[in-house]
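Quick one, T. Sequence first:
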Amino acid sequence: ELHAGRKRFNRAGELVPVEEDSSFGRDIKFNPLIEQVDTDPLADLQVPSIAEALTKVRLEAAILALRHSLHVRRIGLRAGALIEALSIDSVSDRPVDADWLLRWQDAAARAVATEFQDLWARVLVNEVRQPGTHSLRTLAFLATLSRSDVEALNLVTRLDLGGFVCHEAPGYFHAAIHEPLFEHLRNIGLLAEDHHDTLTLKSVAQEDFRVVLRCQSKALFIRGDGLHLTLAVCPFTRLGKEVIPLFTGLPDTAYLFAVGNALKKRGYQVEIGDWFGQKGGSGLFSEQMSL
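Structure tokens:
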């Protein structure tokens, strides 16, 4: 009756017909009663029907599969371009293991950034040239790399002398810069835990000491007495020796000069120059300069 406008409350709080009080404003309209309606809370979420959901899922799966396929194709093109730029002496007759290739494809399909696609291209080229170069464990590790890991690897590859970093470089290493780098590499399993290890290098000559320490496109040619040379080093782990050579960069000449001068003080003759050739194999040492 109130909302219909037929009754009202008077000053005494009594419910009386509107006609008994002519002073009451008849032009006042009351809002209708608010009705309580049961609503489905999922309606606001716009949950599709089962058929619509399945259609959307199939579309998303198709888009994801297409994206992965395009990633693998791009990496294949990068691998082809990489092979054309390399001077390949020999290729193994053994085929690439099918399980390895499947693992590689699964991991490479998820590589989006250019630097990661280049990495997987190098892995494929190395495995095709020599099956067994990279283990399944290496593939699993590479699939977990982050950008910070790649940055650390790009830095340490400038110091790699063939499976180790030489500590005999007075004045070069800085605790604030290199200690966090080495600690990070230890945490991800690429650098040995022993901070003060030693390595004995054997001479490639029969009568006196001669050896070449290569760092990317540069090398140190060391000569002296005896047939052995012991260095204070921090070696890479077995996994590190597989992973770190996949990254390339300019060698740190300041580091090489520091190592060379330290060996010179020990009585060795040291020359620094350009190195052309494959790691672990024969090569050409040119444009050398005596320290």
